[in-house]
Specification:
3-stranded mixed sheet, binds zinc ion, alpha+beta
């Protein structure tokens, strides 16, 4: 870590504190003794390949939005938990970039466990189910 005052390398950590999901550190420069604060936070930098081939940075908000669209009105915490589960599963795949189709599959797996109506709703959009017979097949898989 370079000192923002003198640009030299080398600081001493005076204090570390967990704040929500980040760590705040008070630092003191070895050279000029000025003090400053740094924040450390995990950032998931991975790329999503959209259906049309465009690349986009992964965005958990988008997953939340599509979950909300599929599930309708539910507790805020329901979406938060579901989105976090989906994110963890996607991270566990260790694929970068990842196709939207694969993300969709993970969402479907989770919805199947938590909300069968939302699963069907999402599946209809995601798998482009227009044929009533295919929808019937999906319903049987749920039974
Ligand atoms: Zn310094």
């Amino acid at each position: 870590m370079d000192c923002p005052y003198c640009s030299k390398y080398g600081t001493r950590v005076l204090e570390s504190r967990m704040i929500n999901t980040s760590i705040r550190r008070r630092r003191e420069c070895h050279h000029c003794n000025n003090r400053f604060t740094t924040y450390e936070q995990a950032v998931f930098n991975f790329t999503v390949i959209k259906r049309d081939g465009r690349h986009q940075p992964f965005n958990l908000e988008k997953i939340r939005n599509s979950l909300e669209k599929a599930c309708g009105k539910k507790e805020e915490s329901f979406f938060q938990e579901l989105a976090t589960k989906v994110e963890r599963k996607i991270l566990a795949k260790k694929k970068n970039p990842i196709k939207t189709g694969e993300i969709g599959k993970v969402i479907l797996q989770e919805l199947k466990k938590h909300d069968k109506m939302a699963y069907l709703h999402f599946a209809a959009v995601h798998k482009k189910i227009e044929d009533p017979k295919q929808l019937e097949k999906e319903l049987k898989l749920l039974a």
